[in-house]
């Protein structure tokens, strides 16, 4: 389905006295593009340069909208006009099977939703394309002149046709040289001349507005009947002098026609609100207005009482963040105790403890002594069920270290290491391991029984005794008996002699003391000061 006809009308004839290629014979503009036709015989390269001098390029026809533009521009006039298609440099002949037959647009791409080739086979040497009033595309040699060419100009926006009273003539001139009165859209830098009012306006690109708009160098409003005097607000005529006014909260711009908000250019850091004939600065949520009335400073939400968070509060710019203590997790805005086993690195089982967790293992496994979080196969008997599973290679079974797999019964059978003579003297087999023993009087070191020697370097024990298990192996042999030093023997003898003399002296002292006291004996004893007399018996009647 073809789109509705273009709303923009064809521009009139060429200005007399100007060169044929200086101004287009006709032009029409859409909101962002203008198309122009030049009836001047030129080869392809010269035609392309003519479009570029006006700020455009040879026309690309990618849709039926562009096809309709060509039909309006040609006005059923006979002739062939250059299009913006040329054969790719890598090709010497056309390729009819391809949509653009090997050609590409002067913009460097091959995208299109429309083609209208005249029937033809492969053509060599004809590297450019023309279009006729039948709207058919034909290959042509680039160096041969065509009857004219079509140009395309692209813009970021456009000014609307001026609204003037009936009967007032407006003549427009585009930047690429087209002139006329029937344009409905004008590209930037176009000029509008209104002789009856002595007014000349220009389509200016105003970065502050939504797009290009009509203006002039002289500030203030022009007659209100022409595009409302150029006023962004209201145009009012007072005593024949037009004047622009703005809505409440806005003031006139420097050109006397545009309106700007009182907040435009305000020093407010966050927000500006118009208040009567002035403005007030405001801050975003989480901030408060500083003392200077224009800056905003962060509010420490965590400092409020009570605090906004259940456990921990971290203040941020313009807000805050709630966090939980270690061992807790944020769940729907609340801190809930996190089960310790939830993130525990246990390989198999986990037991929760009051202050942590404990890793455990499933039956048939034991905690790896090298890593308390891992489990290894374990069997505490001579036979245990094997751990088996189905694999792509068949049934596979696994056993603990020191066991072999009995595939028939899927059992783990203990290996008797003692049958392999691992021990030097005696051996005791255990599930998955073994123990070496040495005879009494020796100890195990480096899988060998070493005799225990006395101080003379001779074996301290002799004869075979009961076997003693040597696992775990002592870190060193029992200590040897040490010989006493000769000086120590002399000291001991002297001490014994002195002790004997002290005992003799004590006995003599006790004997003398006893002789001085009265006893029931019939003998007297005289002291050393008396004459030497013999002891004589005294009758009992003479005893005191």
Automatic annotation (TrEMBL):
Membrane-crossing residue ranges in chain numbering: 488-511
Function: Endothelial cell receptor that plays a critical role in regulating several physiological processes including hemostasis, coagulation, fibrinolysis, inflammation, and angiogenesis. Acts as a cofactor for thrombin activation of protein C/PROC on the surface of vascular endothelial cells leading to initiation of the activated protein C anticoagulant pathway. Also accelerates the activation of the plasma carboxypeptidase B2/CPB2, which catalyzes removal of C-terminal basic amino acids from its substrates including kinins or anaphylatoxins leading to fibrinolysis inhibition.
Quaternary data: Interacts with ITGAL, ITGAM and ITGB2. Interacts with thrombin/F2; this interaction switches the specificity of thrombin from a procoagulant to an anticoagulant and antifibrinolytic protease. Interacts with ANGP1 and ANGP2; these interactions significantly inhibit the generation of activated PC and TAFIa/CPB2 by the thrombin/thrombomodulin complex. Interacts with PF4; this interaction enhances generation of activated protein C. Interacts with HMGB1; this interaction inhibits HMGB1 inflammatory activity.
Residues in EGF-like domain copies: 298-336, 414-450
The name this protein goes by in its record: Thrombomodulin
Gene3D superfamilies hit by this protein: Laminin, Mannose-Binding Protein A, subunit A
Entry keyword Amino-acid biosynthesis: no
Lineage of the organism: Eukaryota, Metazoa, Chordata, Craniata, Vertebrata
Membrane topology according to the record: Single-pass type I membrane protein
Ranges where the record places region Disordered: 461-480, 519-544
Domain C-type lectin: 30-144
Subcellular location: Membrane
UniProt keyword terms in alphabetical order: Disulfide bond, EGF-like domain, Glycoprotein, Lectin, Membrane, Phosphoprotein, Proteoglycan, Repeat, Signal, Transmembrane, Transmembrane helix
Organism for this UniProt entry: Falcunculus frontatus (Eastern shriketit)
SMART domains referenced in this protein's UniProt entry, alphabetically: CLECT (SM00034), EGF (SM00181), EGF_CA (SM00179)
Pfam family membership, one: EGF_CA
Annotated CDD domains: EGF_CA
Highest taxon above the source species: Eukaryota
InterPro entries given in the database record: C-type_lectin-like (IPR001304), C-type_lectin-like/link_sf (IPR016186), C-type_lectin_domain (IPR051505), CTDL_fold (IPR016187), EGF (IPR000742), EGF-like_Ca-bd_dom (IPR001881), EGF-like_CS (IPR013032), EGF-type_Asp/Asn_hydroxyl_site (IPR000152)
SUPFAM superfamilies hit by this protein: C-type lectin-like (SSF56436), Growth factor receptor domain (SSF57184)
Family annotation (PROSITE patterns): ASX_HYDROXYL (PS00010), C_TYPE_LECTIN_2 (PS50041), EGF_2 (PS01186), EGF_3 (PS50026), EGF_CA (PS01187)
GO CC entries: membrane
């Amino acid at each position: 389905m073809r789109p509705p006809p273009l709303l923009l009308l064809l521009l009139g004839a060429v200005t007399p006295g100007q060169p044929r290629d200086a101004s287009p014979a006709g032009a029409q503009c859409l909101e962002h593009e203008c198309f122009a036709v030049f009836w001047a015989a030129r080869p392809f390269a010269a035609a392309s340069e003519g479009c570029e001098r006006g700020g455009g390029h040879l026309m690309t026809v990618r849709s039926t909208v562009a096809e309709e533009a060509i039909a309006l521009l040609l006005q059923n006039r006979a002739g062939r006009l250059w299009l913006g298609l040329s054969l790719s440099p890598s090709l010497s002949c056309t390729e009819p099977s391809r949509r653009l037959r090997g050609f590409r647009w002067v913009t460097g791409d091959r995208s299109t939703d429309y083609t209208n080739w005249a029937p033809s086979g492969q053509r060599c040497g004809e590297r450019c394309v023309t279009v006729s009033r039948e709207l058919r595309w034909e290959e042509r040699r680039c160096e041969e002149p065509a009857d004219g060419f079509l140009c395309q100009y692209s813009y970021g926006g456009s000014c609307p046709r001026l609204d003037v009273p009936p009967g007032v003539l407006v003549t427009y001139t585009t930047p690429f040289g087209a002139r006329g009165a029937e344009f409905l859209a004008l590209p930037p830098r176009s000029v509008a001349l209104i002789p009856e009012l002595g007014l000349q306006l220009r389509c200016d690109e105003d970065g502050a507005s939504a797009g290009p708009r009509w203006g002039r160098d002289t500030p203030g409003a022009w007659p209100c009947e022409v595009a409302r005097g150029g006023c962004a607000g209201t145009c009012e005529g007072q005593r024949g002098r037009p004047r622009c006014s703005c809505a409440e909260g806005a003031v006139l711009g420097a050109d006397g026609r545009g309106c700007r908000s009182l907040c435009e250019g305000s020093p407010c850091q966050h927000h500006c609100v118009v208040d009567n004939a002035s403005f007030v600065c405001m801050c975003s949520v989480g901030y408060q207005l500083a003392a200077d009335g224009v800056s905003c400073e962060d509010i420490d939400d965590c400092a409020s009482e009570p605090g906004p968070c259940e456990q921990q509060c971290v203040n941020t710019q313009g807000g805050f963040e709630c966090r939980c203590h270690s061992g807790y997790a944020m769940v729907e805005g609340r801190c809930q105790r996190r089960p310790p086993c939830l993130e525990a690195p246990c390989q198999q089982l986990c037991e929760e403890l009051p202050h942590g967790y404990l890793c455990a293992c499933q039956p048939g496994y034991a905690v790896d002594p090298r890593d308390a979080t891992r489990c290894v196969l374990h069997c505490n008997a001579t036979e245990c069920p094997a751990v088996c599973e189905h694999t792509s290679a068949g049934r596979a079974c696994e056993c603990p270290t020191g066991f072999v797999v009995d595939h028939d019964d899927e059992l783990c059978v203990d290996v008797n290491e003692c049958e392999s003579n691992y021990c030097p003297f005696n051996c005791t087999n255990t599930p998955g391991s073994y123990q070496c023993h040495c005879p009494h009087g020796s100890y195990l070191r480096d899988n060998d029984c070493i005799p225990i020697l006395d101080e003379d370097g001779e074996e301290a024990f002799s004869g075979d005794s009961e076997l003693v298990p040597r696992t775990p192996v002592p870190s060193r042999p029992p200590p040897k008996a040490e010989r006493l030093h000769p000086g120590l023997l002399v000291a001991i003898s002297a001490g014994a002699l002195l002790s004997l003399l002290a005992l003799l002296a004590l006995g003599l002292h006790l004997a003398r003391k006893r002789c001085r006291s009265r006893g029931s004996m019939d003998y007297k004893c005289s002291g050393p000061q008396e004459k030497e007399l013999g002891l004589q018996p005294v009758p009992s009647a003479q005893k005191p």
